[in-house]
Specification:
Udp-n-acetylmuramoylalanyl-d-glutamate--2,6- Diaminopimelate Ligase, Chain: A, domain 1; 5-stranded mixed beta sheet; Alpha-Beta Plaits; Beta-Lactamase; single chain; 518 residues
C-alpha cells in the first residue's frame, strides 16, 4: 500500500504548500521517495519521486525554467515542489501551461521550510504507509490465532493481504500448508522467504510466491524478507508453539500409557485397550519387548553435566525407534524415560526372530549417525506369536538387559533365552562342589594351553557353539579339518572324556560356561 500525493495534501504534511498547476486525481499519484534536485538533473530522479527544488537561476531565465520542467517531467515524478526566496515571484504562465501539458504537478512551498525536515517527514510517512499492510496483517493473524483458526486459515489471510500464493514448510522444507493448489512447475521465479523461529530454533519457513503487493511494500527482496520476519513470522510461530505443546502432550500420554502397560500399573486391561485405541495402538497384535539403555561413552560425561545433551539425544533415539519400525512396516509402541527406552515391536508371522534382528540393526545404523557418543545395550524378551502379556514381556526383557550390562564378555544384545541358561549357570556356580568338579574337569586343558601354546579351551568352546559340527568349527577357527580332528582327540585324552558321548559333552559344556562366566 503506497503513500499518495492526495494524502500528503490532506494531512498538511508541508505547511503553506500551494498547487500551481491544474488539479488532477492525486489519489492515483504515488510517492515512493523524495529528493532535492537542481539543474542539471541528468537522470537522478526516480519514477514516483517527490522532487524539492529552489529552481536556481530559473526566476531570471524562463528558458532555463522550461529545461527544469522538461528534465524533471521526463522522469515521471510524483510532483515538483518549488521554494522561491522572493515570495512575490510568480511562475510564468507559459511554464505552468507546459507543466499541465506534460501532466507534471507543480507546487510552491514557503522558503522557510527546510528541505531536510520535509524529506525526513515524507520518508517516515512513506515507510509507515508501506508497513501498514504488514501491521494490519499482523493484527489479523493474532486475532485469528486467538479465535482458534488453523494454520491454513492464516496462510489465506496472508495470501489475501499480498495477493500472492503462500506456502509454509517445516524446518526441513517439507510442505505443511499452502493457500492455493499449485504444481511446483507453476511456482513463479520471484519469491520472498523468511524463517519462523521458536525458542531460537528454526521450526518452519514462510514463502510468498510472486510479487503481488510485495513489490509495493519495500524497495528490495531483502527488505521484504526482513519485514516478513519482523511482522508476520512471529504470529505464525504461535501456531507452531501450539502444535509443539499438543505434540508434547500426545508424547507424554503415549509414554505414560506404555510404561503403565509394561509395569502393570492399571486396573483393567480392557480399559487399557480402549486407551490404546484412542492413541492409535493395537494391543491385540503379538509383540516382542525390547528394553534399550543408551550409555554415554568417554570421559566427562557425568549425569549432571550431560543432562542437557541427553534430553536432545533421548528425543532423537525415540524418533529413530519409531521411524525404523515404519521403515519395516511394523507396528510399534515406544516410550522414553531419560536414556531408558521400552519398545513393543510387532511380530510378523514370518521370520519373527530375523525381523527383530533387522529392526535392531536398522536402528543402530541410524544411532551411529545421530548419536555417535552413545553405546546401546538391548534386552530382548522371548519372541512369540501368541497374544502378549505385556508385563511379563517387559520383565523378561529387563532381566536380559541386566545380564547384558553386567556380562563379563562385551555384549550389546541379550535375549531372555540367553538368561535362562545364565540363571542355571549362576545357580550352579553357587555350589562349591560344582565349581570344584568344573575346575578339575578342565584344569588339564588350561594347563596344556599354557605349556603348549595351543588354545584348547577356545577349540572346545567353538566346537560346542558350532553344535559339534566339525566342518563349521574348522572354518570358524580358520584351521584345517585334520588339525581340528587332532585337537579334538587331544581334548578327549586330556579330559578323559568322549566328544561322541552326550553325557560327557553336557558336562564339558557346563564346565566351560562356569569357567568363562564366573
Amino acid at each position: 500500500m503506497n503513500y499518495t500525493l492526495a494524502e500528503l495534501l490532506r494531512t498538511s504534511a508541508i505547511e503553506g504548500i500551494k498547487l500551481l498547476t491544474e488539479r488532477k486525481d492525486f489519489d492515483q499519484i504515488f510517492i515512493e521517495s523524495v529528493s532535492v534536485q537542481e539543474l542539471p538533473v541528468e537522470g537522478f530522479i526516480r519514477k514516483n519521486e517527490l522532487v524539492l527544488s529552489t529552481a536556481v537561476g530559473c526566476q531570471e531565465n524562463e528558458s532555463r525554467f522550461f529545461t527544469l520542467i522538461q528534465e524533471v517531467g521526463r522522469a515521471q515524478p510524483a510532483a515538483l515542489l518549488l521554494a522561491f526566496r522572493d515570495e512575490q515571484y510568480e511562475v510564468p504562465q507559459s511554464v505552468l501551461d507546459y507543466a499541465n501539458k506534460i501532466e507534471l504537478a507543480l507546487f510552491s512551498i514557503p522558503w522557510e521550510q527546510r528541505f531536510s525536515d520535509i524529506q525526513f517527514s515524507i520518508i517516515q510517512k512513506i515507510e509507515n504507509k508501506k508497513l501498514f499492510v504488514y501491521r494490519e496483517l499482523q493484527t489479523s493473524l493474532f486475532n485469528a490465532f486467538f479465535d482458534s483458526a488453523s494454520l491454513a486459515d492464516a496462510v489465506k489471510l496472508i495470501d489475501k493481504a499480498f495477493q500472492a500464493p503462500v506456502l509454509i514448510t517445516d524446518e526441513n522444507q517439507c510442505l505443511l500448508v499452502s493457500s492455493r493448489a499449485l504444481q511446483e512447475e507453476e511456482y513463479p521465479p520471484d519469491q520472498a522467504e523468511a524463517e519462523i523461529f521458536l525458542n531460537d530454533a528454526v521450526v518452519g519457513r514462510l514463502c510468498i510466491l510472486g510479487s503481488g503487493m510485495l513489490a509495493e511494500t519495500a524497495p528490495g527482496i531483502a527488505d521484504v524478507n526482513m519485514r516478513l520476519k519482523k511482522y508476520i513470522c512471529f504470529p505464525l510461530s504461535l501456531w507452531f508453539n501450539r502444535k509443539n505443546i499438543e505434540d508434547m502432550m500426545v508424547v507424554r500420554l503415549k509414554n505414560d500409557f506404555i510404561w503403565n502397560l509394561a509395569t502393570q500399573n492399571y486396573d483393567s486391561l480392557a480399559d487399557m485397550a480402549q486407551q490404546g485405541t484412542r492413541l492409535h495402538f493395537n494391543l491385540d497384535c503379538p509383540y516382542t519387548c525390547l528394553v534399550l539403555k543408551a550409555v554415554p561413552q568417554g570421559e566427562g560425561h557425568d549425569t549432571a553435566a550431560y543432562s542437557a545433551a541427553s534430553v536432545h539425544a533421548s528425543s532423537q533415539i525415540e524418533n529413530i525407534l519409531i521411524q525404523t519400525a515404519k521403515d519395516f512396516r511394523l507396528r510399534v509402541m515406544a516410550a522414553a524415560r531419560s536414556l531408558d527406552f521400552i519398545v513393543f515391536l510387532e511380530n510378523h508371522c514370518s521370520l519373527p526372530v530375523e525381523n527383530i534382528d533387522r529392526y535392531i540393526d536398522g536402528a543402530e545404523r541410524k544411532f551411529k549417525s545421530a548419536c555417535p557418543e552413545y553405546v546401546f545395550y538391548w534386552g530382548i524378551s522371548e519372541i512369540t506369536l501368541k497374544p502378549p502379556t505385556f508385563h511379563m514381556l517387559y520383565q523378561n526383557a529387563s532381566i536380559a538387559l541386566q545380564y547384558c550390562l553386567t556380562a563379563s564378555r562385551k555384549q550389546y544384545r541379550f535375549t531372555y533365552r540367553d538368561t535362562k541358561e545364565l540363571q542355571i549357570i549362576s545357580a550352579l556356580s553357587r555350589s562349591d562342589t560344582v565349581r570344584k568338579i568344573a575346575d578339575e574337569t578342565i584344569r588339564s586343558l588350561r594347563e596344556y594351553d599354557v605349556s603348549a601354546g595351543i588354545n584348547m579351551m577356545e577349540t572346545l568352546t567353538t566346537f560346542i557353539r558350532c553344535n559339534y559340527n566339525i566342518s563349521l568349527t574348522a572354518r570358524t577357527l580358520h584351521i584345517h579339518r585334520q588339525s581340528l580332528l587332532y585337537r579334538l582327540k587331544k581334548i578327549e585324552q586330556l579330559t578323559d572324556m568322549s566328544l561322541s558321548n552326550h553325557q560327557d559333552l553336557f558336562l564339558l559344556e557346563i564346565c566351560t560356561h562356569l569357567y568363562y562366566h564366573y
